């Protein structure tokens, strides 16, 4: 009989094929399977030709070709497709075998699957995979969570194929049940924020400063040599330089209506569920929603008035430095909010998340990879119990040095009529977070006035009282609630 496979992978779309080729290149024997079986033979005859990759004609055939304990990885569409395959696989597997979901599944689905499969003796791992097709082929960021007993069985494969930051693998165990997919969800939310922040900087340069695509590309190339050094800044430079067949910038021919697959929305929903002010990511999601109203925006552009002047009249070179600083400060807030959400979820589910380790997992291979993540890793190395990145000395100093520029850029954008929803929300969060006193005292009084929802008095925290504001409302209060 031919050599048995170390792992099987189901799903031969671009990510699945590239991950299989990556595993093969690192010396692992992989069994490939796809719901449409013809794709398996086509893959073996083309992309996988000359490799040790083996194919399967059915799930039964696939399972028979696996070493024990069997390791089966799913890279299929999130939702019912994952459940369907699990239902078909479990009768063919034995107790102690491992099913891995490498898709963009909701963490709540992963929690449910962990619980259901554990009751039947199977091990389940929900692994976030980031890096796109190139990352899958040459080294993605991997974020596994679920049944920890399964980790030793997949660790050599996952840490063998993942990206490396220095000598450190951009993959480690994240935590129980849905922790891996939750961390991947927050990663994707931060990705939404990073992309929107860059788009706002581009919009100011293009609309407010009247810069050409090549001029803007030069700016992003320069920014990529400093604290903003990142994959997304790098590709933005490449996109701005790219010319269509007629020699004009291709970017100008792309419809300004953004799509989304849902992970950014999930992050914003989770932020609301756990009462965490992840405002920047929320605005990034809404910015995509607003962009999709293209036809309405065209009509509105002809009817609704705007700023009296849409062109910046000051020193362009000096202002570009300020945009860079505003982008950097906003980025710090975005990551601070993302890690706040991770911390809140960890409290709720009793996950023991390693925040510095998560930053390291994102340091290479993934879409948000950047030098900046090394600074986050260092912050959590200095203080593993850090409550907020803004309170770390490095980031506190960075924001202090960027703050005035940040304020001027947001103010100037407003005067020019250029929308900067994420930059401005980041600044509002920063000002709110650093405020010893906020106007929530008035808000609490309002709630008590119209709904008898009670409030606390300064110096008497924990004791909720109600006031008869009108003289005829009575002294009976409603149930107290805080959120």
Q: How many angstroms separate the termini? A: 63 Å
Total beta strands: 12
What structural category characterises the helix and strand content?
Answer: alpha/beta
Strand arrangement in the largest pleated sheet? 3-2-1-4-5-6-7-10
Structure commentary:
The protein has 19 helices and 12 strands. It has helices at residues 14-25, 38-45, 59-64, 80-89, 107-118, 132-138, 151-161, 179-208, 213-223, 231-241, 263-273, 279-291, 294-303, 316-349, 355-361, 372-382, 393-416, 421-433, 440-451, and strands at 7-10, 30-33, 54-55, 71-74, 98-101, 123-130, 141-146, 164-165, 168-169, 175-176, 455-456, 464-465. The strands form 3 sheets. The protein has an 8-stranded mixed β-sheet, sandwiched between helices. Strands 8-9 form a two-stranded antiparallel ribbon. Strand 2 (30-33), helix 2 and strand 3 form a beta-alpha-beta unit. The longest helix has 34 residues, at 316-349.
Key traits:
483 residues; alpha/beta; two-stranded antiparallel ribbon; 19 helices; 52% helix
Give me the secondary-structure topology.
Layout (H helix, E strand, L loop, with lengths): L6 E4 L3 H12 L4 E4 L4 H8 L8 E2 L3 H6 L6 E4 L5 H10 L8 E4 L5 H12 L4 E8 L1 H7 L2 E6 L4 H11 L2 E2 L2 E2 L5 E2 L2 H30 L4 H11 L7 H11 L21 H11 L5 H13 L2 H10 L12 H34 L5 H7 L10 H11 L10 H24 L4 H13 L6 H12 L3 E2 L7 E2 L18
